[in-house]
Amino acid sequence: MYLRGGCERGMFRDKVRLVIDACVAQSAGDEKPTAAEACNCRDMLLEVYKNKHKMVLTDFIIDEWNRHQSRWSFTWRTEMYKSSFFEYVRDCADGPLWQKIVLDMKNPFEVEQRHKDFGYIEAALVTDRTLISSDRKSRNAYSTIARTVTELRDIVYVNPCEPNDSPIGWIRNGAPSDDWRRLGF
Questions:
Q1: Across-strand partners of 56?
Q2: Which one, of 99, 105, 139, lies nearest residue 120 by Cα?
Q3: What pLDDT was estimated at residue 173?
Q4: Structure confidence by residue, pLDDT tens digits, 78-126
Q5: Integer angstrom CA distances of residue 123 from 2, 3, 27, 42, 75
Q6: Rounded CA separation 56/88 (Å)
Q7: How many helices and strands in the chain, by DSSP H and E?
Q8: Residues 35 and 148 sit within 8 Å (Cβ to Cβ)
Q9: Average pLDDT of every residue of the chain
Q10: Which positions ≥6 away from 77 have C-beta within 8 Å?
């Protein structure tokens, strides 16, 4: 190996389909990162690979990763492909859900910011409802929206750079859908 270094909700999950935001790929850095965020993102991706979870791919996610991934993340993604640790999902667009979300927001800037991340939310909703992202603003915004848009409440949102999320232990334990990790908690 070049890299170094269907489930029941609410219970232990064997192999989980994970939606991984391109911000994690961008931050993962190189083979020997020094910045804490780079180390955390890289370590998280390594654990995803070692534990044989699947990366969710959509046209949107592929495009985002192609534009933002580091060289190390490109290698990681190649290894995920070679090992068949991915699942491609077609046509997960949910226009009616987006309209509900827009109705909940007042600020046009906020609408624009949330729209850029909505492709990850859509993919999470049609797979195992699990999203890995280091984007704190997006998590906070979608947590707020989940109070009124109930479809978002069960999405597990884990930040590899947030020590309280215990991201490495979470992956090693099968990425359980703990209530406190959900947007609606």
A1: 87
A2: 139
A3: 94
A4: 999 999 999 999 877 778 888 888 886 778 887 887 888 899 999 999 9
A5: 28, 26, 21, 22, 23
A6: 6
A7: 9, 5
A8: no
A9: 88
A10: 25, 55, 65, 69
Q: Which of 105, 161, 101 is nearest to 125 (CA)?
A: 101
Q: Report residue 106 as tokens.
A: 């007042």
Residue 170 to residue 172: CA distance in whole angstroms: 6
Element (H, E) at 50: helix 36-50
Enumerate the domain spans of the chain: 17-181
User: Which amino acid appears at position 72 of this protein?
Assistant: W
Q: Is the pTM of this model over 0.85?
A: yes
Q: Alpha-carbon distance 113 to 96, whole Å?
A: 18
For residue 126, give both structure tokens.
């049609």
Q: Nearest to residue 65, comparing CAs of 121, 11, 105, 25?
A: 25
As given in the structure block, the two tokens for residue 153 are 């409440």
Six-digit token string for 48:
């995803």
Q: Residue holding tokens 């949102």?
A: 157
- Return the CATH fold of 17-181: Rossmann fold (3.40.50)
